[in-house]
Specification:
about 800 residues; mainly beta; Immunoglobulin-like; Maltoporin, Chain A; 2 domains; 22-stranded antiparallel beta barrel; 6-stranded mixed β-sheet; disordered N terminus
Length: about 800
Amino acid sequence: MRNLILFIILFTCFGTYAFAQTAGNILGRITSKNEKAVEGVSVALLRAKDSVTLKLAVADKAGLFAFKGIANGRYLVLVTGVGHKKAYSPTFEVIPEKQNVQLATINLVPIQKAMSDVTVTTVRPLVEQRMDRTVVNVDASVTNAGTTALEVLEKSPGVTVDRDGNISLKGKEGVMVLIDGRPTQLGGADLANLLRNMNSSQLDQVEIMTNPPARYDAAGNAGIINIKTKKNKTAGYNGSVNANYIQGKYPKTNQGFNFNYRNGKVNVFTNVNTGWAKNFETLTIQRSLQNNNNNVIDNYFDQRANMIRVSNSFNGKVGMDYFANKKTTIGFVINGFTNNVTTDNSNRTNIYTAKKEVESITKATVDNSNKWKNFSANLNFRRVLDTAGKELTADFDYMNYDSKNSQVMINSYFNEPGNSIGKADTLLGALPQIITIYSGRMDYTHPIKKGTNLEAGIKSSIVNTDNNARYDSIQYGSLAHDYNRSNHFLYRENINAAYVNLSTTLTKKWSAQLGLRFENTNAKGKQLTTGEKFNRHYSQLFPTAYFQYKANAKNNFGLNYGRRIRRPNYESLNPFIRFIDRYTYSQGNPNLKPSISDNLELSHTYHNMFTTTLNYTATNDIIQGVIEQKGQEAYSKQANIASLRQFGLAINANNSITKWWTNNVSINVFNNSYKGIVNNVPIAFSAISFSMNGTQQFKLSKTLTGELGGGYRSAGVIGVNKIRPLGMINAGFSKQLMKNKATLRVTARDIFYTMRQSAVVKYGNVDAAFQEVRDTRVVNIGFTYRFNKGKMNNLKKKANNLDEQNRVGVD
């Protein structure tokens, strides 16, 4: 701990800059050479000392633009538009004594060449810190090229992913994952499967919110991660194509196409991505089997599973926005996803006596085939009610997941010399899963006065799941239905919610945001095979509060509180059995209850580059994976095991060391303390853990960028699992080609092959250790080509990237 504390102090000194509070507004106007207003061009706010892009805006019909709530400091503005030369404003300063900075009119000069030869590029920082969230700009990291969405999350500040694909945030499980602001409604292996087959080229940003405002669903004890995919609204047409070749132990490829066309009142966008990957996974398990009567060890198990997984995925999106008039926009988005995965698992289990002598050997092959399909559709509406900013929005969503999973497990039994003992047996499994989701929401925004804003909304969702697992056994050549393992489970859930949120400026230095969300949950499940069923109804309130104090030009303090809920995901409720081998499997638990957490955070930001956050979390009935033993079999399931108390310290630094060296580092230190009962055995686990993610970017020339990054997680405790340390180092470079229309990226991930997960579980009669190795050391070669063509007469409407404008917080 002494070395850890010393490291944090040294690192804090190294990154000694921080956030300044928001202080003023920047106003400006853009005209052409004949002083005629120019609409739809992109306006970037740059930090004066290193020209890093901080925010983006779009000029309106009158050529006007604005940046609101800008921290004190020195800036300049860059204006780029199709068919025009770049234009810069003089350097200016935002100071507390001057709330509004009015810039001189910026004149654009037309380019005397074909429009198709013009490419506009801006640079965004890798990590942006905001009052209620951390934003990761995916394309800003060279080593994100060729990766999956799950791998992008692994590199994100405060995020960890365990060997089963479960996502934790700042050491806490129970993260709600959204895609484009909409819940995936998946968890565990199903969510990991979805994210492993999303290419990073589809992603624009990752928003990480440990304490989200009331307008978001209360689900997710640890907070919300919102994955934003790419969408563009530039006039004319624009797009990109990309291809990546990845080589680990086995090859992998992915490729994608993005296209957007905007003309008049219609904006059409689409992207298509495909991928093929071959991966391996080696899982080893050591177990001690205790006698339930006297706790004496009867047997030792040494299990090794070698899995080869081949996946073939397709992901497509198409959508349209129709701008009926200046105040009304109607749009739709359709998404489709397919993924076919085959897994060949050959494993061996050595069973030893208490004296460590070989008793028997089980050799098995477990072949899995999973065909996964997803279809979703969204209809959205936006209406601006008046010039004061009153606005009404609505979203209606339909989503369907259809998974067909089949399994063939063949077990053969031998003695130590290799002679067969007993007949081989075969288990056949068919595990289909269908999830259907309907949801609708309406949100209303009402500015009351300057500095005060009221938001309110309602939402309702209905989820139906149908899981019909059938197992059959083949013994001595005869097929027999396995009634003990087969099950048919139906689940229906309805959640109705309403919220109100008020944000206001109390004084020149104090501001606040108060929210209250009400959620009514109605859930019922039934196992048709056994007749067991449950019917649950409960209503809860979820308050949120944010207070911000602007001490001076360099120091800003924040205090926030929120209550959240973690409902069991559908996979965890499903009582199906999923086999790893003859002696190891996972099983759902329909008796799970939701867990409630209270989260408190105190933060300090300094000089716009350095943030320190203290957090405390109290969670009851925490949902956590546990291991139980039944005879020689061990199985994992989710259970309400205990209460969790966590204290944590997070440090984020995002600063420029020199003009060519940019530093992004996130450090998290926390203490997890669990107390409860597992399998009728009292448990009490507590440990201090440390994790760090960092990226160092080097601008080697105008067209060449290098990157060195990685992450480390110390030993610690997550539920009943005592995890061991792991880490990884990544490196790569990015080269701009073809007049900045193309990018070549070469990256290496997990260079020293240290991303190896391991854990120990020991309580009651459970004593086991796990080690897992995946195909994580890979080299990627990626190429992206961008194209665009705009016409001046298409700029009569606001035509730049409105979605990006929202992302960077431009008002």
